[in-house]
């Protein structure tokens, strides 16, 4: 068995953060498929044995089971020293961007893409319009930041960047708009992250693609 097991599925940008980190650090890991679209995360078994919060991703390492991608990224950065923000200021700054990302960037992109592509019945247009407005505004905040330095915290990529990667590599057709074309600094940052050794697309890294309803 591999050193790390990651409970995940291909369509999850939340899980992609953890899968990408594991790959970028060259960890010995294997995915454990979570059948999210069949409701696995909502079963009593999943909640009792994997994650009481009923979410993926979950990282299993020895006797530990960690959820929340921010916690998983922090754990792996602490253990390996890779993509670890430097000093107290760096740690707090990374946390600031990770919370902003979780709540307002990928935190809106994920549900938006879900409602557009996977929800049955499809999402209410008024909800999609609301989310799109928030997405545009919050991506603009990130774009401005990435106009000042190659990565969120400066010259080197950290776990804040890996968190931001969440939903940003899924095909533009799944959103109905092209994030990199509309936000040029994010587009350039996306290519810098893509160039890191070990980078892989979420559909190549995690099981469950293509999606079959
Ligand atoms: N803040 C969490 C979000 C995790 C999350 O919402 N995951 C989704 C899958 S992409 C999930 O499992 N949702 C459970 C549900 O909707 O029942 C993280 O970053 O890990």
Structure, described:
The chain is α+β, with helices and mostly antiparallel strands and 213 residues long. Helix content is 53%, strand content 8%. It contains ten helices and four strands; from the N terminus they run βαβαββαααααααα. It has helices at residues 13-24, 44-49, 69-80, 87-117, 125-146, 159-164, 172-175, 179-182, 184-194, 202-205, and strands at residues 4-8, 29-33, 58-61, 64-67. A hairpin with a 2-residue loop joins strand 3 (58-61) and strand 4. The radius of gyration is 17 Å and the shape is globular. The two termini are 30 Å apart. The model has no long low-confidence stretch (mean pLDDT 98). The site of glutathione has 13 residues, from helix 4.
Order of helices and strands: EHEHEEHHHHHHHH
Overall strand count: 4
Outline? globular
Whole-angstrom Rg: 17 Å
Q: In this structure, how is the largest beta sheet organized? A: 4 strands, mixed
Q: Unreliable runs, pLDDT <50, ≥5 residues?
A: none
Q: How much is the average pLDDT?
A: 98
Question: How big a fraction of the residues is strand?
Answer: 5-15%
Secondary structure class reads: alpha+beta
The count of helical stretches stands at: 10
Biggest sheet, spatial arrangement of strands: 2-1-3-4
Write the layout of secondary structure elements.
Elements: E1 4-8, H1 13-24, E2 29-33, H2 44-49, E3 58-61, E4 64-67, H3 69-80, H4 87-117, H5 125-146, H6 159-164, H7 172-175, H8 179-182, H9 184-194, H10 202-205
Parallel strand pairs: 1-2
Antiparallel strand pairs: 1-3, 3-4
Summary tags:
single chain; about 210 residues; alpha+beta; four-stranded mixed sheet; 10 helices; 4 strands; about 55% helix; binds glutathione
